[in-house]
Amino acid sequence: MDLSVQLGNQRYQEWYLGLNNLPGNFDLIIVGAGISGCVFAEQASKRLNLKSLLIDKREHIGGNCYDFINKHGIRISQYGVHLFHTKFTRVWKYINNFSEWIPYEHRVKGNILVGQSYRIVPIPPSQKTINILFGANVSDEKEMEQWLCSRRVPIENPRNGEESALARSGEELYDAVFKHYTKKQWDKWPKELDASVLARIPVRTNTDDRYFTDPFQALPKHGYTKIFENMILNDPNITIRLCADFFRIRDELPNSKLLVFTGPIDSYYSSLGLPKLEYRSLKFEEEYHEPEGGFYQSCLQLNYPGKEVDFTRIVEYKHKPNQPKDSKLQKSTVIFKEYSCDEGEPYYPVPNPKNRELYEKYKEMAAREDRVCFVGRLASYKYFNMDQAFLNALEIFDEYFSDSSSFRTTLIGEGDGPK
Ligand code: UDP
Asked: Can you say how many angstroms the Cα of residue 255 is from the centroid of all Cα atoms in its chain?
């Protein structure tokens, strides 16, 4: 990814001063300037007038939501495509404090090999998907239900991802859409993952081709990074230090009443030599194109569920409606082929029984900490969507400051189910 130009985002010299010129005391020290860390800093300031030192080892704020305008004038996301959607009114109201939002319903297509040629189909699978892939010729919900009914594998309580997908879709769809995509994404077969992972993608009997069905679906008009800027910049209660690795500087940090840790929970305890939790990372291969018509592919996100290629999807950000004015008129575009890998920045916790059991051990240790709060996708080892991460941080904040207890279990409302 070409990071030589990172336009559109605020940067201040003092962010990069390390621990120089800091007061000796803060109320909160917050590790990680992503969703959870920024919610804590913002809420602590606005609701309780508390002072936070917010640190991050990266050179920018916003965590994995970070986006910027590249040298071709296209807003891209450094850590992969992010689409905001929620059913939580509290989250929708909260984020509207920090950005204007453009209504946007995400539609994903799959590019799937049938014989020798690729066919483009809606994902999640619906009527059109099976008509195109298998010549099913269904034209209403009843016919779709019949088609599925004759193929679904009867499994009442799916115990893993494979059973979850087979019970909803049957062998053919499972093979075409879920099986190999999952293997590429997780380097695990669906049966090695919790049922909840594949249950994120429904199998529809209707013709709804939206990826999400939540009532609130939108893109921030000026990108995701702007939200974080509006949450934490120009607030005298919030001091930011970037390129600041907690594990290197923890002994030199100023005093505080509470440490809020939003990194991977196992890295907090790495000195104890326990087994590490598994995380999945992503690599992006960037390509520049000047295609006729200005677009490389027909949509923002084109999945490749087959085993014939190693990448999982191609994302072309130019399709997003929150691009800077005029970017759609230019002939150039950039695309990102997304590969999943073990090594690198942790993106996804890997939900399965083995990791959950290990996480429980870390969680027990965390519960015994004094004045440390573990918050977020990496610290609570949960496959949160963005809205769930906002809700989780808001709820942990409420709980933490409702009494003097030092660690609370994660609350996620009802947001952790299938989309
Ligand atoms: N998935 C799949 N085929 C697809 C899209 C998704 O098998 O075309 C499965 C896969 O196991 C994936 C999971 O559904 O990891 C969740 O997909 P989602 O798009 O929610 O993943 P994310 O956006 O978090 O990368």
From this structure: 32
